[in-house]
Amino acid sequence: MLTNVIYLIFLLPSLVTGCGITTHIEVSHRAQDLWLHQPTYRNYILQHQDALQGGSPYPDTMYDSVCYHGNLHQIAEDTNWYPFMKVAIEYMRDRYPPPLQSDNIQGQKFLTFLLGTASHQIADAVWHGSLTGCPNGFIDATAWESFDG
């Protein structure tokens, strides 16, 4: 019994630190139910869950040292914020001009990937405080709400 507890204590930190990717996927999956005002886009999301799951954790997956031994860290940082999304949307409009046709599966998947990436960026902004006015974002907001600051 003691051996199991000791093993769990040493294993637990590695289990806890790896929740970011899962959290981003969960945020995007919950958000898909809120797309009632845009049924066409919602249908793309529902049809192309693989693209949504690829876009939701992007680019955090490249920060990890498991991904090419961390050599893609700078690319992950460069593609994590608004300028990347702006360029990606411009690329989308050039490559797959609107309106997307019903037979344009690649365009639908790319748009769904970008919606997952946008969900990621919004979640990051809330988490880090860019949208909340809290210095440490969601962490401080939760502390203030749950523990009176």
The proportion of strand residues reads under 5%
User: What is the mean predicted local confidence, pLDDT?
Assistant: 82
Structural class: mainly alpha
Shape: globular
Largest sheet: none
Report the count of strand segments. Answer: 0
Helix and strand element order: HHHHHHHH
Instruction: Give the low-confidence spans.
Output: none
Distance between the termini: 38 Å
Description:
With 149 residues, this protein is an all-alpha fold. The protein has one domain. Helix 2 crosses helix 7 and helix 4 packs parallel to helix 7. The chain starts with a helix and ends with a helix. The model has no long low-confidence stretch (mean pLDDT 82).
Summary tags:
single chain; about 150 residues; mainly alpha; 8 helices; about 65% helix; PLPC/GPLD1; signal
